[in-house]
Design brief:
This protein has 12 helices and 14 strands. The longest helix is centred in the first third of the chain and has 25 residues. The N terminus is likely disordered.
């Protein structure tokens, strides 16, 4: 495996903070149209102000002779700061309007004219402020590394389980993947997750859960090693393409390893042997389907009951987690539920009602 620390060419990564936040996006034509509209409205409003006070303006020494064309001409050269000086305000009221109204309109007009430069500067500053504020507040979040098919499916499952989009952060080296993540409402970090500084940008040291969903097993191993070193208490779930690499990932620090290719193959084989069993497994894997697998705390009225009692209530108990140890349903080692127990159950998805 080649685990070099070389930074990927990420389209001028130093031009802006690596964090990407969800935002409303407008088409270029709409942006241009809005700027033109603002400029035209400022120009027409200034023309109207000048014409209503035309008796207080002189044109080459002649007072009160301004026409609509003259007012429009004065508004144009004034807002564009050309200022030929042939038309000038002479009354205190007109000079006050120029100072308090037309001058701010001039600033607005200039901002629209140089809007591209201003937009870049303000966007960079705004993103930097948002990044600093986010880093100071983020805590106990879920980190998804890789936003391909596996990463998107993991994110969708977390949302279906009740997590908020603001509690999920996506790290990917592909700019298109980060743009897709921000469109889905997540904070995105653009960079190579094998690099420590990229993971620190995602506040990995304060993450409670990490999903490693990269496309290559060697990359997953390096990422898992780095994550485990920076976040020793985080729960790490990693996907692996080849099952023989699963043990390497566990040794690297992953709590759970999912062999994606073999799992898909087993599901296909099961579906061929038993179409009904395959449909049920597919339903369980689809978090938006009729059945779902979930882990939850026991409720107060479940204290003292046996797992079999819950089966009669419409929830199939797969395991009871007590003191960090999972007791599966086939061991029959849990006779009665106690305070602090957690249950892994199959139940009907209430969102389908």
């Amino acid at each position: 495996m080649q685990g070099g620390r070389r930074r990927l060419p990420l389209d001028d990564p130093g031009a802006a903070p690596p964090l990407r936040f969800p935002e409303r996006r407008f088409s270029p034509m709409r942006n241009i149209g809005l700027r033109i509209l603002v400029a035209v409205l400022a120009l027409l409003f200034t023309t109207f102000l000048v014409y209503t006070e035309r008796d207080c303006y002189q044109d080459r020494g002649q007072l009160g002779t301004l026409t609509w064309v003259d007012a429009f001409y004065y508004a144009t050269v004034t807002l564009s700061t050309t200022g030929y000086g042939d038309i000038t305000p002479v009354c205190e009221s007109s000079r006050l309007v120029n100072s308090l109204v037309i001058t701010p309109l001039r600033f607005l007009f200039l901002i629209v004219l140089v809007g591209t430069t201003i937009e870049v500067l303000t966007r960079s500053t705004r993103e930097q402020l948002r990044s600093n504020r986010w880093r100071s507040n983020v805590n106990d979040h879920t980190l998804i590394i890789g936003y391909g098919v596996k990463g998107r499916s993991a994110a969708r499952s977390l949302l279906d389980a009740g997590l908020k989009p603001t509690e999920i952060v996506v790290v990917a080296s592909d700019r298109a993947a980060i743009e897709a993540a921000t469109r889905d409402g997540f904070v995105g970090v653009l960079g190579d997750a094998r690099q420590e500084e990229v993971l620190r940008d995602a506040a990995v040291e304060r993450a409670s859960k990490v999903v490693v969903a990269t496309d290559e097993d060697d990359t997953s191993v390096l990422v898992t090693l780095t994550v485990r070193r920076l976040a020793p208490n985080a729960t790490i779930v990693a996907a692996v393409r080849e099952s023989q690499n699963a043990e390497i990932l566990r040794q690297s620090g992953a709590n759970t390893v999912i062999p994606t290719a073999e799992s898909a193959g087993r599901l296909m084989g099961l579906s061929l042997l038993s179409n009904t069993a395959g449909e049920i497994m597919e339903d369980l894997l689809d978090s938006g389907g009729g059945l779902e697998v979930m882990e939850r705390d026991i409720s107060r009225d479940e204290l003292g009951l046996s797992p079999a009692d819950l089966d009669e209530r419409g929830q199939i108990v797969l395991a009871v987690v007590r003191d960090g140890v999972a007791h599966r349903f086939d061991t029959d080692s849990i006779r009665a539920l106690q305070a602090g127990d957690r249950l892994v159950v199959i139940r009907h998805n209430p969102s389908q009602d």
